[in-house]
Amino acid sequence: MFSPANQASFLLDIEGFSHDLQVLEFTGKEAISQPFRFDLKLVSERPDLDLESLLHRMAFLGFDRHGAGIHGQVYSIGQGDAGKRLTQYQLSLMPSLAYLGHRFDQKIFQKLSVPQIIAQVLESHGILRNGYRFALGTDYRPRDYCVQYGESCLHFLQRLCEEEGLHYHFEHSREGHVLVFGDDQTVFPRLHHPTAYLQDSGLVADDPVIKGFTLAMETRPTCVTRRDYDFEKPLLQLESAAKDPSLLRLEDYGFPGQFTDREHGKHRARRTLERHRSDYRQATGHSDQPMLLSGHFLPMTGHPRHEWNDLWLLTEVIHTGKQPQVLLQESITIASSGEFSQGYRNTFLVTPWEVPFRPALDHPKATINGYQHAVVCGPPGEEIHCDEYGRVRIQFPWDRDGDHNDHSSCWVRVASGWAYDRYGSVLIPRVGMEVIVGFYQGDPDKPLIVGCLPNGANPTPLDLPADKTRSVLKTQSSPGGGGYNELRIEDRKGLEEISIRAQRDYVQHVLNDERVQVDNQRSIVVGGNARHELHAEEQHITHGNRLTEIRQNDHLTVHGDRHVRATSHRLSAQQQVHLSAGQNIVIDGGASATIQAGGAWITINSAGVFSSVPIQVGGAPMPLMAAAPVALDTSEPPLPETVSTALLKHLLGDEALIELCQMPRGGTPMDCPLSDCQCRKALGYGDRS
After folding, report:
1. Exposed/middle/buried for 480, CB within 10 Å: 0-12, 13-18, 19+?
2. Alpha-carbon dihedral of residues 641, 642, 646, 647, nearest 10 degrees?
3. Which of 427, 437, 429 is nearest to 376 (CA)?
4. Which of 469, 600, 637, 650 would be 492's cystine partner, CB 3.0–4.6 Å?
5. Model confidence pLDDT, tens digit, residues 591-610
6. Which percentage of the chain shows pLDDT scores above 70?
């Protein structure tokens, strides 16, 4: 199969570079879900190759003249010792994917499935649609929020594949290599020709053969159980399991399982079990077949154990090639491993074709220990942006893609000091506030706001440190600001105070008893109207004096009896006092009663009735002024309905009611312009003429 001993079998073709480099030897490892690497030793008659111009070029390493080989990118290159004619060079080939290992980022992906995220990462690095493809048998759910935090893009990509149970391998040709993603066995191609097993006897076979094949089985978990929690369905126990029909129960139980419904949980549990079981039966072998590539099915024949003559999935292949004939009579010394000195060899790992391959969890998710700060975001013009759970959106300072709007993050829960079934405390962080963010179990995909932080742009509502003895809860009117509500507590010695400020209305609702005790003074100032309504009894006890001043009118309506009891009772009016009863008026003076007016008086006592002047028959009584009715549910008192009432209102309040009287303010009834003035008649004034 191979070329004569004096001809080179391994050839290196570097895209766009003319050279005389010859492959002296190489070693390479390639495996499913791993970037391959081939390290080559080369010789050239030119000691002055431009190494930097070779770096990153595409190249193809051919294993034979029938097309077997690998395609990659020059990842590293170096120059070694020089002999009389030839100079040694070292070169490494890796896939373009490997370059993502040098690209680190902190990035947020939202509402994208894992295949969509992978495609976005690859294309941002220049690996376009002709360089990769997906061959998936399952639809993958979008992830609400997925964070690449401090990971290389390669680590991030491989982690996502491992979490979802995706695998990848490479397809090679002289023109390029294609990255192929899959989630089942159908994506793996079958090698065109079977390879026979021939126990290594030291003789050289005419065709490549498998010279060694050993199989081993190892204990693995037989069942997987995952449990999780969904805060939107807190009473639902989210638990899913998958098990192998084995008598021995070896359970892998874990929380959280990264799912929010049982069907998805079953899928993830099944994938985890497949990962555990993918290498429980594994064979190793070695051969000189250069067509072997990982991610391909190997048909084996000729093994004395007939059930092994089947398809095997190549999960890893280590390639080695040597051709010292390129040195001819050069004096360069090449170290030998002692195994073989010329030709091609490989060792490989295989698993049964029917056992699903799942990559091991070799790339853990980054964790964020501690807290980070962020800024609350929302749509343009919104001051408060939240959902029905009080969650808000935020932007981290490391996020280069966010626009400080309602798409900067997922909805982030806000921790509260107290929360239960429609009671607790709620303080929603507002747009522009700086918040401190923790992460559930350190998971960057699960942020949680635990508090707010003042900063240079958003200082505290206190003048610190001058107001260091104060505690305050102060809000701001929204939208637009301009007002605030405030609860302030002052603890400065001798000035202790609790202050409550309501920007507009202040509502208290006491369903049972209320007790207020003020040990010193109490002051109430109401700028508008005040209304008190009691549905039962009211008692007032004043242990000292009571001073009441009414600067306008006073209306009192008693639907039952009214009793006033005092040691002495004095009633004084600057103008008039009117007493009216529907039936009787009884005045009991006890020892005596006196009525006096206009310098005359009448006294009634036990001795009789005495008058300072003779009592005349005739005259006219002064019209009675009835009490003005008032409605409790109006903000303005009703207008009086009689002339007497209007006159009393004028006399008590120095106010003219034009509807009933045209007496000018500050004047007397004699100044009334009406010729038939009822006020003058009621008060006994004569005609104005």
Report:
1. exposed
2. -170
3. 429
4. 469
5. 898 888 888 989 998 888 88
6. 87
Check if the beta carbon of residue 26 is closer than 8 Å to that of residue 321. yes
Which residue has better confidence, 595 or 117? 117
Whether omega before 356 lies within 30 degrees of 0, making that bond cis, reads no
Whether 678 has a pLDDT exceeding 70, the answer reads no
Q: How many CA atoms lie within 13 A of 582 on its CB side?
A: 0
Range 243-268 burial, b when 16+ CB lie within 10 A, else e:
bbeeeeeeebeeeebbbbebebbebb
Please state the CATH superfamily assignment of the domain spanning residues 98-187 in this structure. Baseplate protein-like domains (3.55.50.10)
Cα-atom radius of gyration of the chain, to the nearest Å? 50
Per-residue pLDDT band for 583 (boundaries 50, 70, 90) equals confident
Strands across the sheet containing 600-605: 592-597, 600-605, 608-611
CB-CB contact of 144 with 113 (8 Å): no
- The residue-averaged pLDDT of 550-568 equals 88
Look up the CATH architecture of domain 220-277: Irregular (4.10)
Average pLDDT for 442-464: 95
Residue 270, pLDDT above cutoff 80: yes
Question: 297 falls in which pLDDT band (50, 70, 90)?
Answer: very high
Per-residue DSSP letters for 611-638?
A: ESSPPPS---PPPP-PPPP--TT-SSPP
**Amino acid at the residue 208:** P
CA dihedral 3, 7, 8, 9 (to 10 degrees): 0
DSSP 126: T
Q: Which of 428, 435, 427 is nearest to 384 (CA)?
A: 428
Q: For residue 259, what is the DSSP state?
A: -
HSE on the CB side for 376, CA within 13 Å?
28
Which uninterrupted H or E stretch holds 78?
Answer: strand 69-82
Name the residue among 237, 243, 276 with its Cα closest to residue 257: 237
Average pLDDT in the chain: 88
Whole-number pLDDT of residue 577:
85
Q: Name the residue with tokens 């590539």.
A: 293
Quote the pTM value.
0.80
Residue-wise over 557-579: b if at least 16 C-beta within 10 A, else e? Answer: eeeeeeeeeeeeeeeeeeeeeee
H or E, element range at 109:
strand 104-112
Q: How far apart are CA 266 and CA 350, in angstroms?
A: 28
465 cis-preceded (ω within 30 degrees of 0) = yes
Confirm if 314 and 294 have CB atoms less than 8 A apart.
yes
- Strand 592-597 relative to strand 311-322, pairing: unpaired
- Residue 144's identity, in one-letter code, is D
For 139-197, the DSSP string reads --PPEEEEEEEEEEHHHHHHHHHHHHT-EEEEEEETTEEEEEEESSGGGSPBPSS-EEB
Domain layout of the chain by residue ranges? 98-187, 220-277, 372-453, 470-501, 643-683
